[in-house]
Amino acid sequence: MGTEPIISARGLRKVFRGQGGKDVVAVEDISMDVKPGSLTAFLGPNGAGKSTSLRMLTTLLEPTSGTATVCGYDIARDPASVRARIGYIGQKNGAGQYQRLRDELLSQGAMYGLGRVESRRRTEELIEALDLAEVANRKTITLSGGQRRRADIALGLIPHPRLLFLDEPTTGLDPQSRANLWDHILRMRQRHEMTLFLTTHYLDEADQFAERVMVVDSGKIIADDSAPRLKATLAGDRITLTVTGGAEPAATIVRRAAEDSGAAHPEPEVTADGENSRIVVAVNHGEEVLPRLIRELDAAGSTVLTADLDQPTLDDVFLTLTGRSLREENQSTDEPTAEPISAGATR
Ligand SMILES: Nc1ncnc2c1ncn2[C@@H]1O[C@H](COP(=O)(O)OP(=O)(O)OP(=O)(O)O)[C@@H](O)[C@H]1O
Questions:
Q1: At a CB cut-off of 8 Å and minimum separation 6, what does 104 contact?
Q2: Where is this region: Disordered (predicted)?
């Protein structure tokens, strides 16, 4: 298949007929080409249309309009050929929870027509690779959240897919289990040279592990690039200053410095901080702008009490694009915002 895209979608759209005849446009218009071997994160707030897009690409849901090929096969005309080549790990795994994990893996192998010997070989290989030996004889319903997600991944990998779709693989896990799961995901990827396409609303995961980040909002892809490039082109470095007295003339000087740096949104955010003023602005090349800015403010008679320079995050990217914070949006329906995690495995 060479460099042909492993996923190629054009104008995918899904409208659900809501109750009382009111339609819900879950996915408005999604187009993409995904390279074989890549790791792509589909990042967006709750309800952005991530799962619906994934369910269309995995042939679980028929698009209202639009087309896609996955592993070279058309999702509408040849869903069986698509399914035979992909793995899909949904948000809630519905597999038989009262079976022992090892038996569940073996039945999965049988379901994919692997044959007894191959099924057993694959089951043992995945139990070992995903660190599940200790729990392999337990019923899956008794597993912890992290073990359950690793078991889900083992189930998804039984058919040896070239392309693995994961829908929010780490949601609901504590930071340590998330790091551990990522470790396994990256190891599996390396071992099997798989293409990974996953949805997440954890900004740090997309930032750390994905080579390509597609930011999704209201059923559309609103940005698509590597995390460093998204941050450099769409967010800029954040400068936070505390100056004595009122905000002027400091705010004007800060705005001009931001404009000169080519910042997309040079208007500073100004708040009173007791007797002092706090000024926040996004600039380009913050490390060059900040010292110059402090000198200019000093010359204009504004004393700078504190000055901080922060690298942008993907949340700043989302904020620039939509005027909303992804962190806050997810907090309302999700567990506490993710702490940064680090997986032992390297890319
Ligand atoms: N079967 C359905 N019937 C009606 N509306 C639906 C259905 N499935 C999803 N939706 C709606 O479509 C929109 C997109 O949902 P989707 O689950 O794809 O979002 P998501 O980005 O995966 O969100 P989350 O991060 O919460 O999983 C939401 O408004 C959702 O309520």
A1: 95, 96, 140, 151, 155
A2: 325-347
